[in-house]
Write a structure and sequence with these properties.
The chain folds into 2 domains: 1-32; 35-290, Rossmann fold (3-Layer(aba) Sandwich). The radius of gyration is 24 Å and the shape is globular. The strands form 2 sheets. Strands 2-1-3-4-7 form a 5-stranded parallel beta sheet, with helices on both faces. It has a two-stranded antiparallel ribbon with strand order 5-6. A hairpin with a 5-residue loop joins strand 5 (210-211) and strand 6. Helix content is 47%, strand content 8%. The chain has helices spanning 2-31, 48-51, 61-69, 93-96, 100-109, 113-117, 119-126, 136-144, 160-164, 181-195, 229-243, 250-253, 261-264, 273-290; strands at residues 42-46, 73-75, 153-157, 200-204, 210-211, 217-218, 246-248. The protein has 295 residues and is α/β, with parallel strands linked by helices. It contains 14 helices and 7 strands.
């Protein structure tokens, strides 16, 4: 009888110890900081138009916006990327792994393996003839660590690379086809709104541009296979209205056109110092007029 008594006592002690240990673990889980700890007010995502510096050494768009608004701004843009995932010969790593449709999945579902693995491509071109890729590996790693629960505004600027790569604008049979501009945008917005319902999303449409290698072609007249740039903008405005997201319409509001495009760009596409101010002011003024002090 005495042995049974002490055996019962021992069991009660161990139960209490286990309960205490479990409570301690649960408490640690509640207070332990999340591994995603980088905090920003604004995250910019897009292509080289919004992401690159002039000659890669002067102020960039995100830095200009931070100066003008006092907000903390992260540059999560990757040159060569588009809204849609491209396939085939034109579907370079940067156009597929870094597309907005894939990065939205990575942000919402924490699936960063493919995007991070593709940074070997950026390292290769950084070391050869594409200095624009410098720092992309570190940028992708930082993007994966951002706490999007506390991001106030996500700005998405895409469309130019979709246009000049001839990406289809939409697929009537599959509205979520991420191989199309419209399907990729719908897919990204659906994921982001589901996983971060309080996140404020602002789209920036592509502005007028002239692209080409030996000869420059106007986005008003040159169809690269998917339609004129205006058609991509039209689709973006249509989807934005359907999803209730805000839009900064750079195509209609920036003032860029065939008469002045080389006053604001280095090559008909990428902004020079004046172009960074033009685009930066367009976004900064919108944020100052539409983003309140309180979250």
């Amino acid at each position: 009888m005495e042995k049974q008594f002490w055996k019962k006592q021992d069991n009660r002690i161990w139960i209490k110890v286990a309960s205490f240990a479990l409570a301690a673990v649960l408490l640690l889980l509640c207070v332990w900081p999340s591994p995603k700890k980088l905090q920003y007010d604004v995250v910019l995502m897009g292509d080289s138009v919004i992401g690159n510096k002039v000659a890669h050494k002067s102020i960039a768009v995100h830095e200009y916006i931070a100066e003008q608004t006092g907000l903390t701004v992260f540059n999560g843009a990757f040159g060569g990327s588009g809204m849609a995932k491209q396939t085939g010969e034109s579907g370079a790593v940067c156009n597929s792994s870094w597309c907005m449709a894939n990065l939205a999945q990575a942000i919402c579902l924490d699936t960063w393996e493919g995007a991070k693995a593709s940074m070997a491509y950026a390292d290769h071109y950084k070391d050869t003839n594409r200095q624009a890729f410098s720092g992309y590996k570190e940028r992708m790693e930082a993007l994966s660590q951002i706490d999007f629960e506390n991001v106030r505004v996500l700005i998405i600027e895409h469309g130019t690379n979709d246009y000049n790569s001839g990406v289809p604008i939409d697929n009537e049979e599959d509205p979520f086809d991420i191989g199309t501009f419209g399907g990729a945008l719908r897919s990204a917005l659906t994921l982001l709104q589901k996983h971060y319902p309080d996140l404020r999303i602002v789209l920036v449409t592509p502005a007028y541009c002239e692209v080409g290698t030996e000869e420059k072609y106007s986005s008003d007249t040159k169809d690269w296979g998917g339609g004129l740039l205006a058609k991509y903008v039209e689709k973006e405005l249509e989807i934005a209205a359907q999803y209730g997201v805000e839009v900064i319409d750079a195509y209609h509001q920036s003032g860029l056109n065939a008469d002045n495009v080389y006053d604001y760009t280095t090559d008909g596409l990428h902004p020079n110092a004046d172009g960074i101010v033009l685009l930066g002011d367009l976004i900064s003024n919108y944020l100052k007029g539409n983003v309140n002090e309180d979250k």
